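Support reply, case 0932

Customer input (verbatim):
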Amino acid sequence: MDHLSLAAELAVNTYPGRGIVLGRSEDGKSAVIAYFIMGRSANSRNRVFTAKDGGIITEAADPSKLEDPSLIIYAPVRVLGKTTIVTNGDQTDTIYDHLAAGKGFAKALRTRTFEPDSPNFTPRISGIVKVKDGAMKYKLSILKSDGGNADSVERFFFEYDQPVAGEGRFIHTYRCDGSPIPSFAGEPEHVRLMGDIDTFTRMVWNSLNEDNKVSLFVQYIDLATGKTQDRIVNKYEKV
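Our regenerated output:
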């Protein structure tokens, strides 16, 4: 199967919105997690990622300019034991609570729907990565409206139990820019993962549209030890 160039996919899309990349590093030694946010409005761009408890939270870069925080302030990445959760909204907490109670990823997301931001109805994208005994597996999901219908939700789940070195899956909220913005469609994109964490971080950040990119988080989890390396890149500085 042909794998897409993640750099090329990002470079030709001015507005993929928010994106998750999960997979296994080129050398096979690490689980790879990446999450980025973009913004077109001043409120969406007024954000930074801040490290917290092995994951991240979003914060207002300038709190005095924060307007509606409901869909832009949340914890994109949280860690529960050997499982890392990454999402584009407060469904991170829904998944965390369900997993902590011994319930599943899909069961958690069946209690949620797409965002109520008419007319875009932004999809909720989510993933989990589990690292245990030198191995890894991961899942992805997207909750989206049925062609922009506010009364009809579609839920899709994808599982990857034997990730191959140098390969990952990329899912993002929007196919491209537009008005309204068209939702992502199809299976998560099969992309190549190349280089160490710094090489990969630079590639993703430099490939995102300069005007619209806001923040990027990358984490490599060593499969043998469980130790993590994290990188955060913010376009704006916190006041």
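We compared this against your earlier run and they match. Two observations from our side: The chain is about 15% helix and 40% strand. The CA atoms of residues 26 and 140 lie 20 Å apart. Please reopen the case if you see a mismatch on your end.
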